[in-house]
## 1
Amino acid sequence: MTQESEQNQLPRHMEEKAVSTPESEVGSKTDNDKVESVETPEAQERVIECITNLINQRIGDAFKVYDDYIKLGTPKKFVDCIKEIWPENNGSPYSGNLRLYLPKLPIPEDIAKNFSIRFTVKPDDYENHASLDSGGVLSIGINEESTSQDAKITERLIKMHVYHEIEHIYFPGPNADFLDLSDAKDALKYVSDPGEIRAFAKGYAYLFKTKFPGEAFSQEKMSEAINEVGYRDWFATFSDSEKRKKYLELCGVDIFDINDQLIGLTSGFIGNIA
Ligand SMILES: [Zn+2]
């Protein structure tokens, strides 16, 4: 995929604003195995799990390398550690940003051939920045300053974004290009979209499982896990009585219902995440 084609594609999902970064070259991609079509929900779940695990394992490995360099007294930037553990890295040197392709995987060719991961260094909105565009580019914001302050938290946040975004392969969210997220109605339309609720639930389930392994869902503990990584707590928003009144008047939507959906999905995912 060329830079031009990527720019011409509308993002089918954006967490927040995208960060556009000039990219001068894209390397060749790896061959990928063909597999059976992915039509059943079970097969889709397997694909999602496979891609998520692959990416997050590499990210975990990169953080180990990052730790090792600190212990050796020769700290390196996190993105440089990613390059070390990701041999499929195309090596593009552009502006400190990095694009990686998935190696051979038992995943459908239509996903595998285009899928790549871009780590964007120092985006202007690190905390909320992750997106999956229609061309199969997963963008993840990396803030080197946050990384050095608390690598474990940063690692958890990045992995949560991966869980969220990979879920969107089969459960896309709304196209944020046509929504004004600073408008209360549009923002609600965005976060209450079924694909979005599901993707948030998946990311939240990962946070919960990591913080409270083996425990059943509780909203209190969930909020603790979310607050620890400094992410957005939609459970708190959707269970707020004042906000409930406001949204009922504004758009006739009961956000308590959305909270119930979010809790149901998150609870289910907690049991399934390895
Ligand atoms: Zn999303």
Note: Residues 1-36 have pLDDT under 50 and may be disordered.
## 2
Amino acid sequence: MKLPSGYEDFLLGQFPADLVNRLLDALDNSVSLRHAVFHRQTLESWNLSNPEFLPLHKNDRLCNGAFFARDFVFAHCPGYYSGLYYPQEASASEVVSLLPENLNLVLDLCAAPGGKSIQLSHKLSADGSLVSNEIVPKRAKILSQNLERAGILGRVVTSMSPTELSSIFGPIFDAVLVDAPCSGEGMFRKDPQTISEWSQNQVEVCVARQKEILQSAAKLVSEGGYLLYSTCTFNWYENEGQIKIFLESHPEFYAEKFLQLWPFEVEGEGHFACLLRKSENRQKPNLRPVKPISSPTIPELPSEVQKYLEARGSIHQGRGGIWFYPKRIQPFLPFSQALSFCQEPGVLIVDSGSKPSVSHALALVLPEGIWPDTLTLKDEQVFQFLRGETLATDLSHGCKQILWRNLPLGFGRQIPGRLQNLVPKGLRTFVPRTNLPARPIVRGLSQTQSP
Ligand SMILES: C[S@@+](CC[C@H](N)C(=O)[O-])C[C@H]1O[C@@H](n2cnc3c(N)ncnc32)[C@H](O)[C@@H]1O
């Protein structure tokens, strides 16, 4: 690999020669592997029962997911569309595990495209909420789609600057993740453009931007709360150096854990993370209470589904239709006038459109067994459905939640002779017709370890 000019000397100014040599060798010799983080089910339960769809192997050091077989095309697996898993760079998937479990209010400050937000959603308490923010509006849209596909209930997606968010919320979050924009030295093997864009000047620009983001992030962390900082770069200035400067100007924080993954040690591109904690010495601010919203009767929803939702939050008429606000996002509603959301918080459950209809998002957040009428597709029908095609079916009339295995894919409505496809046009996939993975690529967990 042709590294940026001056890169080796730049590293030698920061690290021992032996470490630099091992790093440069790794950048030159190894290939980048693809990795899956499981969202809806555990890897073990999925892989053991469905090895033909997702050939994977595990690695002892990177334990938050598993690697795809090299010839596996994730976009050809229906599990991708039902949020079963999210493809994420292997070492990036370790960062969130530094945080404790059962967090109530979490903010992912630099969140697109959303891999770490999906992982953060697993760290929430039963009623916990996650705000995922992405400053670039186009990327915020992709973030929002990825979180929707994952069926995350308590998601709030905003597109604002860290400074704006800190002035709106103040110190209310149990945990704030700053997965910072960085010079991306860990992306050299995956994305040659990062090599051409790298320069010492760009590192300085990144350091200044990260410093500014951290200043705002610090104002958003509650007393006793966590600030998790990470980058996918190797240089000292954006990693330990950045933490050193931060701690010097923020004596209320202390460093609790570090994670440094080098590409010569793991089957991944490398990552840096540091978990900081804010000392607990002042009173936590109280959030304003949320006004209760009365639930209307909703003709498009079966009564048991409405009851299921009402037990978990509140339903109200909003922009574009009827919305469900899970309990876990309610702490953010008092701020909703001030926030600039990428997508309204909550889940649109009935799209008012020209003819009111249940929304796709509702199909994705309802676990199997709640919607009374379901249709489980055969493997060969899945992509026909995801492409938005109608299926020739002769079932009882009405709206059905469409499942693949036990995962939700969307809604379909039986009309005479066929199943009308209710997947919105913008979310239909364009995968070719003969693309389900061939059966022979079976590498069960019991047979494979890291190569
Ligand atoms: C490393 S990426 C985040 C990846 C994400 N955490 C994930 O796991 O998918 C950094 C993000 O920070 C955003 N960003 C760039 N400049 C920023 C700024 N000044 N403040 C906040 N975020 C910024 C970028 O647009 C980018 O999406």
Note: The chain has two domains: 7-30+88-278, 315-334+342-427.
